[in-house]
Amino acid sequence: MAFFLETLIGGLMAGMLYSLVALGFVLIYKASGVFNFAQGAMVLFAALAMARFAEWIPKWTGIDSMLLANLLAFVIAGIFMFAVAWVIERLVLRHLVNQEGATLLMATLGITYFLEGLGQTIFGSDIYKIDIGMPKDPIFMLDSVFPGGVLVNKEDVYAAAIAAALVVLLSVFFQKTTTGRALRAVADDHQAAQSIGIPLNRIWVIVWCVAGVVALVAGMIWGSKLGVQFSLTTVALRALPVVILGGLTSVPGAIIGGLIIGVGEKLSEVYLGPYVGGGIEIWFAYVLALTFLLFRPQGLFGEKIIDRV
Amino acid sequence: MSTKKIGDVILDVKNISLRFGGVKALTDISFNVKEHEIRSIIGPNGAGKSSMLNCINGVYTPSEGSITFRGQTFAHMNSRQVAEMGIGRTFQNLALFKGMSVIDNIMTGRNLKIRSNLFMQALRIGPAQREEEKHREFVEHIIDFLEIQAFRKTPVGQLPYGLQKRVDLGRALAMEPQVLLLDEPMAGMNVEEKQDMCRFILDVNDEFGTTIVLIEHDMGVVMDISDRVVVLDYGKKIGDGAPEEVRDNEDVIRAYLGTSH
Amino acid sequence: MLYRENGQFKTSYRADQQIFPITQDRVGIALLLAFAFIAVPLLASNYFYTAVLIPLVIMSLAALGVNILVGYCGQISLGSGAFMAVGAYGAFNFFVRFPGLPLIPALILGGLCATFFGILFGLPSLRVKGLYLAVATLAAQFFSDWMFLRIKWFTNNSDSGSVSVNHLQVLGMPIESPMAKYLFCLFLLVVIALLAKNLVRGAIGREWMAIRDMDVAASVIGIRPMYAKLSAFAVSSFIIGMAGALWAFVHLGSWEPAAFSVDISFKLLFMVIIGGMGSIMGSFFGAAFIVLLPIVLNQFLPALLGLFGIEISTAGVSHAELMIFGGLIVWFLIVEPHGLAKLWSMGKQKMRLWPFPH
Amino acid sequence: QAKEQFFPLLSYRTGPYAPNGTPWANGKQDYLKMINARDGGINGVKITFEECETGYATDRGVECYERLKTRPGVTLFDPQATGITFALTEKAPVDKIPLMTLGYGLSVAADGMAFKWNFPYMGSYWTGADILIQHIGKNAGGLDKLKGKKIALVYHDSPFGKEPIPLLQERAKMHGFELQMLPVTAPGVEQKATWLQVRQSRPDYVMLWGWGVMNSTALKEAQATGFPRDKLYGVWWAGAEPDVRDVGEGAKGYQALALNGYGTQSKVIQDIMKHVHDKGQGTGAKDEVGSVLYTRGVIIQMLGVEAVRRAQERFGKGKVMTGEQVRWGMENLNLDQKKLDAMGFTGLMRPLSTSCADHMGSTWARVQTWDGKKWNITSDWYQSDEQILKPLIKAGSDKYLADKKLTRRDAADCQS
Amino acid sequence: MEQQNIVLNVNGIEVIYNHVILVLKGVSLQVPEGGIVAILGGNGAGKTTTLRAISNLLAGERGAVTKGSIELRGERIENLSPADLVKRGVVQVMEGRHCFAHLTIEENLMTGSYTRTSKGEIAANLEKVYNYFPRLKTRRTSQAAYTSGGEQQMCAIGRAIMTNPSMVLLDEPSMGLAPQIVEEVFNIVKDLNTKEKVTFLLAEQNTNMALKYADYGYIMESGRVVMDGAASDLASNEDVKEFYLGVGGGERKSFKDVKSYKRRKRWLA
Ligand SMILES: Nc1ncnc2c1ncn2[C@@H]1O[C@H](COP(=O)(O)OP(=O)(O)OP(=O)(O)O)[C@@H](O)[C@H]1O
Ligand SMILES: Nc1ncnc2c1ncn2[C@@H]1O[C@H](COP(=O)(O)OP(=O)(O)OP(=O)(O)O)[C@@H](O)[C@H]1O
Ligand SMILES: [Mg+2]
Ligand SMILES: [Mg+2]
């Protein structure tokens, strides 16, 4: 029982972390109809910037407060992400207004390569460390009820809290503000949105900036857990089933989807894995998402896919 | 009405109702269509005209009622079965295959009649090749008929609206349907083009004896070419009869025609 | 006005239904084939065969398969790597379990395994569409990665999961030398491309495209979405499976599941989109772009930068290569969102008007 | 045609394995630069080299191989990746170019009678696994104490990670311990489920068989689930600085095999400093010189160079050797302690001598422990157990030969 | 057209799609302040393209203006973004409706007020639209994709009105609308024109209606303006009557009696 709880909690936590990456996908898709494969690369890029600046700032300026250094690094990395957003709009999106989904998807793949190359050129390709003071050691709860207690990872709890806060913030942004509505309009029809005066260029810069910041937060947390290194981009592949399970267009969906996938894959690996030789969690996550899709083709909270004649 | 003889009821719609959540798109609609006739459906926007066609077509499933086509009664069929039975259709919001050329679009209308299987098609041996040519010939007739020879190989997405409408008609004709459902085929055309389109419809009706169900907002056209007219309003039938009758119907004038007609 | 169809009148529909109705195109293709089959073997070095031509030909074949599914039928798939893997391991199993089975039947059987697998993972497409389907097909990818690592039977009980084949021969002729391998793959590519072209310009191809462009309308004119989609999955995964088997047997010789990782799935999708969706020719252009560009960059970048007096570290070259690759993808998309094939046909259209600008 | 011995260098400096691939590649390059600078080449034959980025991907590796193998004076290939090794194993005999896979690759390839062109110098996954069990047994107070114990293997789910399994199963049978298998999907950034399972089944020891980012992640998860780090043992591919550096204190007590020595004391490293880095010609950063993987790169390249030197002894001093001649050199290498000392490799490796039947040449390794800041060698040399390895290798190579319809080399072939 | 205040001056523009398809071959037209100008012409004449060129929506169709100039109140506008144009009061209602499928009718309308900031003004505009199109009010909470064709057309027009425009480019507003609504739409156009001084440039196939409400008309044929003049003059022109109003020879012919397809007479080849 205790072990089941542990697995469950572990799954929930892992799920929250996936959500954080999934959120980036959802944001951009919702706001511009672009399925942004570069999200993983953005996470890496942001994390690299953060890690390296946190390392360089004390060296350059002599600041020795870790908090201050981290804060500065965060801000600078944020500025980097803004710059990236701006450049992407200028050089890529602007020229691809009104193109089909596949074309835009492809463009984001191009951006992925570019960012991976650029990130490693500027910041290096070693393993770097982000130390934002997250506690690394486990805590044990409920030891009165279960022998040995239930292991909970403190770092994960903090991370999950940050993710949750971000999601609430973004949900409000989308539902309640004019910009939120404009973003959804753009996703439906670029040209019509333009025709009534929604400035696509500015909208895109805004969304990619927000997605950049989300990537930065995700990169910071994942980076602090795993170390910052190229493989961070592969967390994007982990987040994809979350995105489609929750629905490409739903912010809360990203969270719920994350939790379901997180729990599902951990339970499957732990309880099912040993019978079939293990290593099943990644495909299990995808199959799980696929199963949900069979019942709701637009994901749990996604907007209905409309086809009418 | 010259030489045309109107036959028996070919399509009979009985007590159809259709609901979308709260919206009642159709309430208890009944009407029939006779062989060789041109039957128009008119009504204000959102009256449920297109929905009616969608029900006949098997795109929507009516919540109540039944449809009888040539003696066969069904509440719901899938679109394929309806197509096989010989009901063709054009669409209000252009549902052409944008990436394909005009010829290919019309050729898809022949697909129901293709007999050769995948392997024969891959090899293009004898029968498959002959079949392809035979259908191509048929399609060329349609192209000639609709006077779109010049655009044969243009992707339809690049054609102006009016021509796309014509291709849409061509695709439906290629099915050699017994009944042809036309959803606003003349929207977005000027008078001259409408005249052409009317000519096509009348010719189809005359030459192939195809029964036609027509949705159209241009009263001139409707009054001139249809044999009988159904009027829908807010999902209800408010009139049914010969054009002249309908034109003078008080309800119809109030709900649809407005005072100027 | 060298290139135009004016003055070439077709007297029968058959003539007009040829694959290449324009004489210049026919001549061009004939020359190209002659070049590929005759001139290349006279000119190419072994390196060129093994590192460039063979991968190019096999990847063209795979891209062709993907294009049928993605470009013609509109079902975006990221599971192509899995179909290749199934083709490769399927063919391998037939090859080692039935000693004496000739190569070509083994390849075809491998393709059929992939067909089966493709249909299985194509079933969700009846309900799930677009990007949702794209992501869902990754399930096939990760499942196959796992399956070939974990189920020992598929790898003939190899401890590491890595398997190999050799002594390939067709009709008694050994397929060992790079030239033989190249010609063999090229031959298969030409045959399959021809069959595929026949399919896509025939009735079934029209069904696929109709489903892609507007599925509701397609069903109203009597096209069964299920048949169209599943047949596209079947044909496409058959071709991809064959390509996978060739990749494993002919190109790698010895392979492990990672040879068909998700990377390959992505690459195949790039090829199709860059090359041009819904174009057989586009598959070749796309494959050429994705296969050749990294090699070219890798070899010429240092020299090129050297010209400008920039000394660049080895890691720098690799990173610059990534950046240039990504940049070029974006650039091509901006120039022509519908791919290289469209660029090509627009070029032809301009030629038709030549020497007038419009 | 200038007299140049060409060393193709396959490497990866991008992608998930870059942090480990880079120092390794740098060590290889620097040694060659040093030989040119210090000795003017091998008996006057200048060394040239070219690097080719594989990104750890098999198809790119094959392309690199095909491109570089045709260079005049090509010596040997070190693929730096298990997958690429598999693919090249098929090609090398045809092209007559030897493959050196120091500490990795095909374990059965130690049998030179079956694998004429493969050289898993200094050890394979099987020797590594064997030594690791010996060490665990020793820590437990004798191999017999392993009876009834549970050892978990957390491994990279790829041929690399699966290779040691047959040997471990053999050992498990011998000593009566239970072997629990926990695969980790590459590249291994998500291991929560794995470590939850470790926590559940409470194995006495965990063996870590990872590469790249998988290692540091595993250590972090071990910390997060409270698995004692001193019960965690890594293979030599999980025992370099990038694996533990950013875990720092969290990995304290973690032990891993040390295939080679390291540090900046040895003469050869000093020479590299002097002749390469101090002249500003170092390939990478100065502070990584002498690190674990860097030193491994140096050793690999030294063995390559020595093989050429050996071949020259037979086929003509000062000449450029062909792949075939180099192969002979690799097969007849004899580096005793005296030679090693003379070359400045004291403490970095054990003597190594190869023969037609034995392509490994040395089967020794030590154990090192991470103290939170750096690695320290904490054990004496272990040698893997011939008795166990021999039959396994024999069986494996027999199967290989049968599958390929090949025959064993005979004594005559050994002379060529 | 005498030199009253010209708001929009299109001067000999050429438009090419996809770098190869030349569609407009030198189109010039002027729109006076407070006027209603109609562009008439058959399918594919280039009406839509002309409007897109003015509102700068060509880029998304991979088209470009290659020659000529477009001036709005004396300012060259070829390089402005569509959003800038909306800020200057020029808004286009696109052919084929283009409602935001997933947004409700009301949300669709509200997006139209993106450039407006005053809450009161927005509320008033919304009220105005609902007054013009009561049907929209009843459907305000349905997603636009699930409304009928006509409802979508109303929504698109309403959305444009929400931007508070001074000039509206209307592309086939009557397409798919019931006759009564067509009448209404044109009345609304007239209303906005007289009461709020909104200038209109409309592309129409319904020549009858268009000439009834417009002050001035241009007739286009295959990418060229072939005739222009005051609406009343055009309406009485014999050719226009025959080809665009269907009243050749004075009498309106029944659609039924039009004999087989006839070659069109063209003003220019
Ligand atoms: N995106 C495009 N790409 C290529 N050609 C196009 C494109 N859009 C329009 N065209 C071509 O430009 C010409 C003019 O089209 P346009 O849509 O401007 O005509 P229109 O007068 O509005 O016709 P309609 O009354 O049918 O809407 C047509 O021949 C059409 O084929
Ligand atoms: N799939 C659907 N879901 C929800 N509501 C629908 C759906 N299809 C149609 N409706 C509603 O049903 C009503 C009738 O629509 P329909 O399209 O049949 O009208 P119509 O008579 O064709 O109008 P128009 O002349 O404007 O085309 C409309 O109010 C529409 O919003
Ligand atoms: Mg309708
Ligand atoms: Mg138009």
Helix-strand layout with pairing:
The complex is a heteropentamer of chains A (309), B (261), C (358), D (416) and E (269).
Chain B: E1 9-20, E2 23-34, E3 38-42, H1 49-57, E4 64-69, E5 72-74, H2 79-85, E6 87-89, H3 102-108, H4 118-123, H5 126-146, H6 161-174, E7 179-183, H7 191-208, E8 211-215, H8 219-225, E9 228-233, E10 236-241, H9 243-248, H10 250-257
Helix pairs in contact in B: 3-6, 5-6
Chain C: H1 13-16, H2 23-43, H3 46-72, H4 80-97, H5 103-122, H6 130-150, E1 163-164, E2 169-170, E3 173-174, H7 178-200, H8 203-213, H9 215-220, H10 225-252, E4 254-255, H11 262-275, H12 280-307, H13 314-335, H14 340-353
Antiparallel strand pairs in C: 1-4, 2-3
Helix pairs in contact in C: 3-7, 3-8, 3-10, 3-11, 3-12, 4-5, 4-6, 4-10, 5-10, 8-10, 11-12, 12-13
Chain E: E1 6-17, E2 21-32, E3 36-41, H1 47-55, E4 63-72, E5 75-76, H2 82-87, E6 90-93, H3 105-111, H4 119-132, H5 134-138, H6 149-161, E7 167-171, H7 179-196, E8 199-204, H8 207-213, E9 216-221, E10 224-230, H9 231-236, H10 238-245
Parallel strand pairs in E: 3-8, 3-9, 6-7, 7-8
Antiparallel strand pairs in E: 1-2, 1-4, 4-5, 9-10
Helix pairs in contact in E: 3-6
The structure holds adenosine-5'-triphosphate (2 copies) and magnesium ion (2 copies).
Task: Give a brief description.
The complex is a heteropentamer of chains A (309), B (261), C (358), D (416) and E (269). By secondary structure, chain B is α/β, with parallel strands linked by helices.
Structural class of chain D: alpha/beta
Query: How much helicity do the residues of chain D have?
Result: 40-55%
Quaternary structure classification: heteropentamer
Q: Which molecules are bound besides the chains?
A: adenosine-5'-triphosphate, magnesium ion
Strand content of chain A: under 5%
Task: Describe the fold and architecture.
The complex is a heteropentamer of chains A (309), B (261), C (358), D (416) and E (269). With 309 residues, chain A is mainly alpha-helical. Chain A has one domain (2-295). Helix content of chain A is 72%, strand content 3%. A two-stranded antiparallel ribbon of chain A has the order 1-2. In chain A, a hairpin with an 8-residue loop joins strand 1 (138-141) and strand 2. The N and C termini of chain A lie far apart (54 Å). Chain B is α/β, with parallel strands linked by helices and 261 residues long. Chain B has two domains: 1-86 and 177-260, Rossmann fold (3-Layer(aba) Sandwich); 97-176, no CATH class. Chain B has ten helices and ten strands. Chain B has helices at 49-57, 79-85, 102-108, 118-123, 126-146, 161-174, 191-208, 219-225, 243-248, 250-257, and strands spanning 9-20, 23-34, 38-42, 64-69, 72-74, 87-89, 179-183, 211-215, 228-233, 236-241. In chain B, the strands form two sheets. Chain B has a six-stranded mixed sheet with strand order 6-7-8-3-9-10, sandwiched between helices. In chain B, strands 2-1-4-5 form a four-stranded antiparallel sheet, with helices on one face. The radius of gyration of chain B is 19 Å and the shape is globular. In chain C, helix 3 crosses helix 11, helix 4 (80-97) runs parallel beside helix 6 (130-150) and helix 12 crosses helix 13 (314-335). Chain C has 358 residues and is mainly α. In chain C, the strands form two sheets. Chain C has a two-stranded antiparallel sheet with strand order 1-4. Chain C has a two-stranded antiparallel ribbon with strand order 2-3. Chain C has one domain (50-353): ABC transporter involved in vitamin B12 uptake, BtuC (Orthogonal Bundle), CATH 1.10.3470. The longest helix of chain C is centred in the middle third of the chain and has 28 residues, at 225-252. Chain C has 14 helices and four strands. In chain E, the strands form two sheets. A six-stranded mixed sheet of chain E has the order 6-7-8-3-9-10, sandwiched between helices. In chain E, strands 2-1-4-5 form a four-stranded antiparallel sheet, covered by helices on one side. The two termini of chain E are 26 Å apart. Chain E has 269 residues and is α/β, with parallel strands linked by helices. The longest helix of chain E has 18 residues, at 179-196. At the B-C interface, helix 2, helix 3, helix 4 and helix 5 of B face helix 1, helix 7, helix 8 and helix 9 of C. The structure holds adenosine-5'-triphosphate (2 copies) and magnesium ion (MG) (2 copies). One adenosine-5'-triphosphate sits between chains B (20, 23, 25, 43, 45-51, 92) and E (142, 146-150). Chain A: Keywords: Amino-acid transport, Cell membrane, Membrane, Transmembrane, Transmembrane helix, Transport. Chain A: Pfam families: BPD_transp_2. Chain A: This is Amino acid/amide ABC transporter membrane protein 1 (HAAT family). Chain A: GO terms for molecular function: transmembrane transporter activity. Chain A: It is found in: Cell membrane.
